[in-house]
Task: structure prediction
Amino acid sequence: MSEDETHRYMTRLSHAGRAGTNIRGFVNPAVHRGSTMLYPNMAERMKGGSERLEQKPHYGTGGNPTHWALENVIAEIEGGTRCQVVSTGLAAVTVPLLAYVKSGDHVLMPDSVYGPARSFCDSFLSKMGVATTYYDPCIDAAGIEALFRAETTVLYLESPGSHSFEMQDVPALAAVGRRRGATVMLDNTWGIHHFQPFRHGVHVSIQALTKYVVGHSDVLLGSVTVASEADWERVRGTSLVLGQYASPDDCWLALRGVRTMGVRMEHQMRSAIAVADWLRGRPEIREVLYPALPGARGHEIWRRDFTGACSLFGIVFRPDISREQVFAMAEALQLFGKGASWGGYESLALPSAGFLTRTATSGELGGQAMRLHVGLEDVEDLKADLAQGLAVMNARR
Result:
């Protein structure tokens, strides 16, 4: 955490992970590249080998000052003490899972979890002899308690859920997980900065830095943040033994991106709320899935636990609108790219048909759905683009 917590978020984003303002040198830290680390003698070499879990150079895969600067910034944003940067957002999911499970263990996963995380459980953990139970993401404390087994070692959370945006009662669920001796993990990518995981009972916070931290849709990166030394040793040790590594050039780009993240996210949140509220008034839209909107699903939990929202949300069309019509709308959009990621400066639109897998719940939303990410474009231009896309959709009836 910051040595001076009287500084507010935007100030800390600007100054964290830097050498300081009262020194001679460039503003931004340098890019350090390297594989082999040389030592002046064997005593130093042996010492370096014993310090692998620390932020000290010993070999390229252990990181260097570029990695550590970014890790320190992310730990500060997340409200944790230590952070491990990994190669992708998916790696940020798989590394901590592998750190805390063994053959015979049991994992609890929300039914709305990020698709590749589900695939990892079904295709990889199952081969290790680790069982996964998918649960209704809107489950309450009593419900999650009933799903625990003696061998349950991980309670995994994602709030809001991918594509369907269910808000989970993280404090209540985490309290059950802790009481039952499970490690509580949270994919906090949607809630970066706006949700402080360790204040709500989470042990391990997962981020796809690819999204808002990088901010320019040109780097793949992930992070795993913890608040205790025991968790740090588990996560860091597993990352090292798996050979997980992030390019220092990518870390440097993420450091550059994080300096403007607060400004970008604030602008994009305001734009997303404006676009989402406008869509609510369109006759083609049955529901807007955006917890930041009053009256939306999960709004009460969002208002209680979050300080803001990111610019990703969903829309559900009237039941009489077909998948083909929704596809036609997506293809007609000029400012919204058709892509699976989010968090960058550009707007995106992705129909949900074919992307949702649900086993614990029906996954039915009452109509065809589309996920929208609002970028930095002018709000009125985005509305106009959506309006002409809806017009194309209506013409396909």
